Amino acid sequence: MRRLLVSVAAVALATASLGACSSDPEATAPSVSASPSPTPTPTPSSVVWAGAVCVERDNLKAAVAALGHNLSYDVTSERSAIEQIDRQLRLQVLSVANAADQLSTALQGVPVDFVAANDLVVTVTKAKGDTTDAVTQVTTSLDAAMSADNILTGVAEAGKALVGAKAAFEAGQVLVSTVVDATSTASGELGDAFAAAPQCAGDGS
After folding, report:
1. Distance of alpha carbon 51 from alpha carbon 198, whole angstroms
2. Per-residue pLDDT, 21
3. I need a labelling partner for 55 at 20 to 30 A (CA). Which of 22, 32, 39, 97 fits?
4. What is the pLDDT of residue 32?
C-alpha cells in the first residue's frame, strides 16, 4: 500500500511539473505592438491661401470671358429688346462682380504672418475696385432702362448699359491680368506658396 501511495504521489508530481513546463504559446509569446502610422505633414497656411486665390482667379477669368458674349434680342420689339438685354447682360455683369468679390475674399484670407503677400493683396484689390465700379455703372443703366417711362428713354439707357458692359469687360480683363501676373511671376516666399499649391498648376492664362 505504501508503495502504491508513493507511486500515485509521483505521478501527481510529474503531472504538475509537466503542466508547469508546457503552456499556451500565445500566452508566453512576446507581444508585438503595431508601429504607429506616420502623421502627415500639414499643408502650410500660405499654400492653402495661394490655392484658394488661384481657384478664384480662374473663376474670375471665366466670368469676364463670358461678359458680352451671346447677347441676343428681338430687334422687332424695342420693349422686348430692352427686357432681353437687361436679363442677359445683368446676369453676366453680376457674375463678374460675384467672381471679383470671391477673389477679394480669398485675398483677404491671407495668413497674418505671411507679409510677402501684402503687396499682391493691395495691387489686386485696387484693380478689383475698378471692376466693381464699372459693373455698377452697367446695372444702374439697366435699372434706368427698365424703369423708363417711354421707349426712347429706355432704349437710350439700354445703349448706355451696352457701352458700360464694354468698360466692365476691359476692367475685368485688367483685374484678371493683374492677378495672373501676380500669381505666375511671384518670387521668394510668395512664389514658393503658389508653386506648391496644386490649384496653381496652370498659370491662369
Report:
1. 7
2. 45
3. 39
4. 52
Phi and psi at 71, nearest 5°, equal -75, 130
Contact assessment for residue 184 and residue 205, using Cβ atoms and an 8 Å cutoff = yes
C-alpha–C-alpha distance, residues 177 and 59, integer Å: 13
For the beta carbon of residue 91, count every other beta carbon within 10 angstroms: 10
The residue assigned the cell 495672373 is: 180
This prediction has a pTM of 0.76
- Give mean pLDDT in consecutive 10-residue pieces for the chain, a chain of 205 residues: 40 41 48 58 91 96 90 71 91 96 95 92 93 96 95 92 94 95 92 94 68
Q: What are phi and psi of 144, to 5 degrees?
A: -65, -40
Q: Are the CB atoms for 79 and 157 separated by under 8 Å?
A: no
CA–CA gap between residue 14 and residue 148 (Å, rounded): 114
Identity at 133, one-letter amino acid code: D
Q: Taking the chain, what is the end-to-end CA distance rounded to the nearest angstrom?
A: 107
Report H helices in 31-150.
45-66, 78-108, 118-147
- Exposure pattern of 171-186 as b/e (b: 16+ CB <10 Å)? bbebbbebbbbbbbeb
- Looking at residue 5, its pLDDT comes to 37
Q: In the structure grid, which three cell numbers stand for residue 181, read together?
A: 501676373
- CB-CB contact of 174 with 96 (8 Å): no
Rg for the chain, CA atoms, rounded: 37
C-beta of residue 49 within 8 angstroms of C-beta of residue 106: yes
